[in-house]
Design a protein that fits this description.
This protein is of the alpha/beta class. The protein contains 22 helices and 11 strands. The two termini are about 30 Å apart.
């Protein structure tokens, strides 16, 4: 459960801080349906850039932003439906677009949901505490951005092997950056740095891998957006077949919990890099699907509700990044597949992990022989904006990209996606994966065996946490009322 104990003395200071800096905090209801946002906020956003450091952009932590860089309002969920000519399967694969969040990634949402409960209870003092954001890339970007909106100091932790664009953008914010050894596969190095920073009482850690605010946001915001899109496109005979997501922090898999609560026959599919098959094979290694961590099972992953695990070879999404973004790749997609230019341009909305998510959906669709009636949802965590340097590196390594190479990559890595490295989980398989949490969270991070067992045996553990959204929203509303800017 999320600790919602109120610290009145600190809360008074935090309210004064918010009043001085024109900070109004959105409720979860407003992030789920931003049409509920105050009119003064909507008016302000008409002249505010999507990435501007302006507290009003807290209300853009939603899947419903207008798909423009400047001054947009709210509308339907931003998504792409991928045609069968591209995917090679009959199932309708739909991906929600993270590009149209501030920072260009949905992780800005999970970071808000981790920080806000402590802010509106007075547990976090923005005039004293530093917000520490341990991450494999995008979460610390969201955390640093939200810290800037809320006028508090941030410390971003991410692996030194992440793309140059992430570091370049973080340097534009007034916060500290710590690069840990290795790549996204080396989460242990991040956790070790967290233990070091915890020695100072001034540092408050918001660890996405264990913060239940991460789950709360994806359950109520991402899950609801998926259901909204399904109900918009499915028609009377539509079947919500499943939710396919790579397991980074594990938070986005909570969207699958929401979908299952509304469509119980839907499957939850958790994917990982084949080069580091922790879910599939208790394994280890290094990989290039930036933004997903591994070699451990996140504390926030409701493993008992997961139906299938899939391994994605990191070579596949990395090469398809070129197909979707190089001029020669776009030429192939238009001339050979007949895809419309306006759709092809939207393929830049996929980053490497987003492409991995779509490949997961294709493998899932092939395994279950899904048809045109079946809808599969996923997310595009970030976009190609974060991977320009990777495209340059691939050109250096492999030479100029050609339409012939694009055809080969599409046929091999997407149309050729098979049902290998896929496991349909039995009860015992789920329990095996769940038990892996012990080694990270009990032995290393100070969690208890009792809570580990509660996650598995207590039916109210996850549903009780999801229900806390009402209490969190009440605290946010009370906070905003005291700030007095509405």
């Amino acid at each position: 459960m999320i600790d919602l104990t109120v610290h009145q003395d600190t809360l008074k200071k935090t309210i004064a801080h918010a009043r001085e800096r024109n900070i109004i905090i959105p409720t979860f209801k407003q992030m789920q349906n931003p049409e509920l946002a105050p009119q003064k906020i909507k008016d302000k956003l008409k002249n505010t850039g999507l990435w501007d450091i302006d507290p009003a952009n807290l209300f853009r932590v939603t899947w419903h932003n207008e798909a423009v860089e400047e001054g947009g309002g709210f509308g339907g969920v931003n998504y792409i439906e991928f045609p069968s000519e591209l995917t090679g399967v009959k199932a309708r694969i739909v991906a929600l677009a993270g590009k149209w969040f501030p920072t260009g990634c949905h992780k800005v949402g999970s970071s808000v949901a981790c920080l806000v409960p402590r802010l509106v209870t007075g547990q976090f003092d923005p005039t004293y505490h530093k917000a520490v954001w341990p991450s494999t890339g995008n979460y610390c970007r969201g955390g640093a951005y939200n810290s800037a909106l809320l006028a508090c100091t941030s410390i971003s932790i991410l692996p030194e092997g992440m793309s140059r664009e992430r570091f370049d953008w973080l340097r534009t914010l007034d916060g500290e950056i710590i690069a840990t050894p290795g790549s996204e596969s080396d989460v242990k190095a991040i956790f070790d740095k967290v233990w070091e920073l915890k020695q100072s009482p001034q540092n408050m850690v918001f660890n996405q891998f264990e913060e239940m605010g991460n789950c709360l946001w994806h359950y109520h915001i991402t899950g609801a957006a998926m259901v909204e899109v399904f109900e918009k496109i499915a028609g009377p005979d539509g079947n919500f077949a499943g939710v396919c997501l790579t397991s980074g922090s594990g938070g986005s898999l909570s969207a699958g919990d929401y979908v299952k609560d509304h469509y119980p026959k839907a499957k939850i599919v958790a994917a990982e890099a084949l080069q580091c098959p922790t879910l599939l094979d208790n394994g280890f290694g290094e990989h290039r699907i930036e933004g997903i961590g591994d070699k451990h099972i996140p504390w926030v992953h409701n493993v008992k509700n997961t139906d299938i695990v899939v391994g994605i070879d990191d070579n596949n999404p990395v090469n398809l990044l070129r197909t979707f973004n190089e001029p020669a790749g776009k030429e192939y997609l238009e001339k050979e597949l007949g895809l419309k230019p306006e759709f092809i341009e939207k393929l830049s909305w996929l980053g490497i992990s987003g492409i991995a998510n779509v490949l997961t959906a294709i493998k899932f669709a092939k395994y279950y022989e899904l048809t045109e009636k079946d809808v599969v949802t996923t997310v595009m965590t970030d976009s190609a904006v974060m991977y320009g340097s990777r495209l340059e590196e691939l050109t250096e390594e492999k030479g100029a990209y050609t339409p012939m190479r694009a055809m080969a990559d599409h046929e091999r890595y997407m149309l050729g996606a098979a049902t290998d490295n896929l496991q349909e989980l039995t009860y015992a398989d789920r329990k095996r994966i769940h038990n892996l949490k012990y080694y990270t969270w009990v032995e290393q991070q100070g969690r208890t065996v009792e809570e580990l067992n509660a996650q598995w045996y207590d039916d109210n553990y996850w549903s009780g946490m999801h229900a806390q959204v009402e209490e969190v929203d009440a605290l946010i509303e009370a906070f905003n009322a005291e700030v007095g800017l509405l």
